[in-house]
Design goal:
Layout (H helix, E strand, L loop, with lengths): L16 E5 L6 E9 L3 E6 L6 E5 L3 E2 L4 H8 L4 H5 L2 H4 L10 H7 L3 H7 L10 H13 L11 H18 L23 H21 L3 H23 L16 H4 L2 H19 L4 E4 L5 E4 L1 H17 L5 H4 L2 H23 L16 H7 L6 E2 L2 E2 H28 L5 H19 L8 H5 L4 H14 L1 H9 L5 H30 L18 H15 L7 H28 L1 H9 L17
Antiparallel strand pairs: 1-2, 1-5, 2-3, 3-4, 6-7, 8-9
Length: 605
C-alpha cells in the first residue's frame, strides 16, 4: 500500500508511534521513533527483529485509525444516509423503481465485497466465485525489494493470506440450479490451500537464496578466502631457506601440511582452554547481555608457560614442535571452519536479540560467512570470548616457542632483534589477557558476527601475527643499538596511546551517563586514537624485519586495511546509534586517526 507524503519538517518526537516507509519500498509499517536528526528519524520497526532504520521526515505519518478506515471501505454509513436530505425528501425519490432493483442498486461493489456473500445472480455459480477467490491466493504478489528480511516478508504474506481465509469462509450459499440445492451455513476451510501456497513459496525462496548470488555474498566470499588462505600462503612463500613473493614451483610434500600430532595438539589445547573456562577461579564479568563470564585467561597462560619451561628444563627438543607449525595452522583452520558451521546451525535456535543484522540477509553462504549470531553462548559459556582467549594465549606460546628453540640451539647468544620481536609480540597480547574484561566493550565483541571469517581469524591469528618473529629468526639482520632503541621507543609510544584510549573508551561504555569522557583526553584529538596506537605498535614490530624483503610488510598492510574497514564500520554504527550526538562529535573532532595539526590535507568520508 502506498502512503501519502508528509512534510519535510519534523512533526514527531522520540517515543512516538508512527507509520514509516520501509527503505527502498512503497510499504509503510508501524514503528517507534528512538532518535532523529535534521532530516530523518531513527525508527525501531515492530517486526520480529526490531529493525532500526533511518527514515526521512516526509516518509512518516500518524498511524491509521482502524475504525475509520473500515467505515470508509464499507461505503456510506446508515446514520449518515438517514440524515441525508435526499433521503428525507420524497420528491427526490426515483418514481417507478422496483423495490428489488432498489435494494440491489443501492449497494456499492465495495459493500458487496465487505459482506462476503456470493452473488445470487443466476449467471454466476458459487463454485466459480469460490475458485476465483482461491486463485487470488495463488497470485499473491511478492515483495520486490530483497533488502527486507525473510521474517518481514513471511509475516506480511501470512497476514494477507489470513485476510483471504476470511473471504472464502461463507455463511450462506444459494444455488439456482434445478438439479441440486446446497444448504445454508456451509463453511469452507482454506487451510490446505494456504498450506500448499506457503510450501511452494518457501521452496522457491530456498532455491533462490541457495543459488542466486547477491552483493552481500559477493562481498563476503573474498573475506573468507583471505581469512583461510592468506596465513597459509605466507608460510609457503617465506620459508627458512628463501622468502620471495612467488609460489613454489613444486608443491611441498603432503606431510608438510598434515600430521596426526598436529590435530591431537590442537584438540588438546582447545580442551585445556575449555577446562580453564569452567573452573570456578577468576574474576566474573557481567556482559551487556547479562551473561556472567569468568575471566581467568592469565591463569591458563601461567599453566602453559610452566609446561613450556619444564619442557626446556627436561631437554625436550622444541624443534620437533616447531616444525609442526604449518600442520598446526591447517589443523586450527579446519577447526575454525567446522566450528563456524556448528555456530551457523546453532544460530537458528538463538534468541532474537543476539542475531547479527549483517548476517541475517537470507542468503545462506553470506550469513554463514558473516555470522548470524553476534555473541553465541551455551548457557553462561561465551563462545566468542573462548575463541579470543585461545588466540591470545596461543600467540604468546608460539613467540616463546620460537625463542626457546633458538635458546636450545645457541644458548645465551640469542639474536637481539629476535628477542625484541618476540617480547613486543608477547607483551602486546599479554596486556589483553591481563585486562581481558576490556574485550567485552570492544566493537568486535558488541557488533561483529561470529561466523566463518571471525572463527577462522581467531584460530589462525597466532600463526599470522607471529610471522614477523619467525622471519627475524630466519632472515633478520643485526641492527645498531640506536635503531633498536628508536624502535623500542616507538613501540612504547604506541602502547601508551592505545592503552590510554582503550581505558578511556572502557570507562565511557561502562558509564555512558558521563558524555564528557568522550571529548576529553585522546578522544578529543582524533576519533580513533586506539587504532592509531595499534598502528604505531605494529609499525615498530615490522621495522625489526628490516627492508630486505617485502613479504613482512604485507602483514602490516593487511593490518592497515583491516583497521580502515573497522573504522568505517564503527563510524557507520555510531552515526546510526547516536545520531546528532555523533554528528556534533565529528564537528568538534574532525580528524579520524591523524591529528589535524600534523596533517593539513586529511581524508573525510
Amino acid at each position: 500500500m502506498k502512503m501519502p507524503r508528509g512534510d519535510t519538517s519534523r512533526l514527531f518526537d522520540v517515543g512516538q508511534k508512527v507509520m514509516a516507509r520501509w527503505p527502498k519500498t512503497s510499504l509503510y509499517f508501524s514503528g517507534e521513533i528512538i532518535d532523529f536528526n535534521d532530516i530523518e528519524y531513527l525508527i525501531r520497526f515492530d517486526d520480529e527483529d526490531k529493525s532500526e532504520l533511518a527514515v526521512k521526515y516526509k516518509d512518516t505519518t500518524l498511524p491509521f485509525s482502524r475504525t475509520r478506515s473500515r467505515s470508509r471501505s464499507l461505503g456510506r454509513s446508515t446514520k449518515a444516509s438517514s440524515k441525508s436530505p435526499s433521503r428525507r425528501s420524497p420528491s427526490r425519490k426515483s418514481p417507478g423503481r422496483p423495490p428489488a432493483s432498489k435494494s440491489s442498486s443501492s449497494r456499492s461493489p465495495s459493500r458487496r465485497t465487505a459482506s462476503k456473500k456470493l452473488d445470487t445472480s443466476p449467471n454466476k455459480s458459487p463454485v466459480v466465485e469460490l475458485r476465483n477467490e482461491i486463485d487470488q491466493i495463488d497470485k499473491l504478489p511478492e515483495l520486490k525489494n530483497r533488502s527486507v528480511t525473510t521474517t518481514d516478508v513471511s509475516s506480511r504474506q501470512s497476514a494477507r493470506i489470513a485476510s483471504f481465509e476470511k473471504k472464502i469462509t461463507y455463511t450462506e450459499v444459494k444455488s439456482n440450479s434445478s438439479n441440486a440445492s446446497i444448504g445454508n451455513n456451509i463453511k469452507i476451510d482454506a487451510k490446505s490451500v494456504v498450506k500448499s501456497v506457503q510450501e511452494k513459496n518457501r521452496f522457491a525462496q530456498f532455491l533462490k537464496r541457495l543459488i542466486v548470488a547477491s552483493w552481500v555474498t559477493a562481498k563476503s566470499v573474498p573475506l573468507a578466502v583471505v581469512a583461510i588462505f592468506f596465513p597459509l600462503a605466507l608460510t609457503l612463500v617465506c620459508t627458512a631457506k628463501q622468502c620471495k613473493m612467488e609460489m613454489p614451483k613444486t608443491l611441498p610434500k603432503p606431510e608438510i601440511f598434515y600430521h596426526q600430532k598436529s590435530y591431537l595438539i590442537a584438540s588438546g589445547f582447545l580442551a585445556l582452554s575449555l577446562v580453564f573456562s569452567l573452573i570456578p577461579i577468576g574474576k566474573i564479568f557481567k556482559t551487556h547481555t547479562g551473561a556472567r563470564v569468568r575471566c581467568n585467561g592469565f591463569l591458563m597462560l601461567v599453566a602453559c608457560a610452566i609446561a613450556l619451561g619444564v619442557s626446556i628444563y627436561q631437554d625436550i627438543d622444541l624443534q620437533k614442535i616447531y616444525i609442526l607449525l604449518r600442520p598446526l595452522l591447517i589443523a586450527f583452520t579446519s577447526i575454525g571452519i567446522v566450528l563456524s558451521v556448528l555456530l551457523y546451525i546453532k544460530s537458528f535456535y538463538a534468541p532474537r536479540d543476539s542475531i547479527n543484522p549483517a548476517g541475517n540477509t537470507g542468503y545462506y553462504i553470506a550469513d554463514w560467512i558473516e555470522g548470524r549470531e553476534i555473541n553465541p553462548r551455551i548457557g553462561t559459556f561465551d563462545i566468542k570470548y573462548f575463541l579470543f582467549r585461545i588466540a591470545l594465549v596461543l600467540t604468546i606460546l608460539i613467540s616463546a616457542l620460537t625463542v626457546g628453540k633458538e635458546f636450545q640451539t645457541k644458548g645465551t647468544k640469542i639474536f637481539v632483534p629476535l628477542l625484541l620481536s618476540a617480547s613486543m609480540k608477547a607483551f602486546y597480547f599479554l596486556d589483553w589477557i591481563v585486562y581481558e574484561d576490556s574485550f567485552f566493550t570492544t566493537f568486535e565483541y558488541l557488533n561483529v558476527g561470529t561466523g566463518l571469517v571471525l572463527s577462522v581469524f581467531y584460530m589462525t591469528m597466532p600463526f599470522l601475527f607471529t610471522f614477523d618473529t619467525r622471519y627475524v629468526l630466519n632472515h633478520g639482520d643485526d641492527m645498531p643499538w640506536y635503531c633498536l632503541t628508536a624502535i623500542v621507543a616507538l613501540y612504547v609510544i604506541g602502547y601508551l596511546v592505545m592503552k590510554g584510549a582503550n581505558s578511556q573508551k572502557h570507562t565511557f561504555r561502562t558509564n555512558p551517563a558521563n558524555p564528557s569522557v568522550a571529548l576529553s583526553g585522546l578522544w578529543g584529538v582524533v576519533r580513533h586514537p586506539n587504532y592509531l596506537g595499534d598502528i604505531i605498535m605494529n609499525l615498530a614490530m615490522t621495522l625489526l624485519c628490516g627492508f630486505k624483503h617485502v613479504i613482512p610488510w604485507t602483514i602490516f598492510v593487511f593490518i592497515l586495511f583491516n583497521l580502515y574497514v573497522r573504522m568505517s564500520e564503527v563510524e557507520k554504527t555510531c552515526k546510526s546509534k547516536y545520531g546528532l550526538a555523533w554528528a556534533s562529535y565529528k564537528a568538534r573532532v574532525p580528524s579520524r586517526i591523524i591529528p589535524k595539526k600534523f596533517l593539513s590535507l586529511q581524508y573525510e568520508r
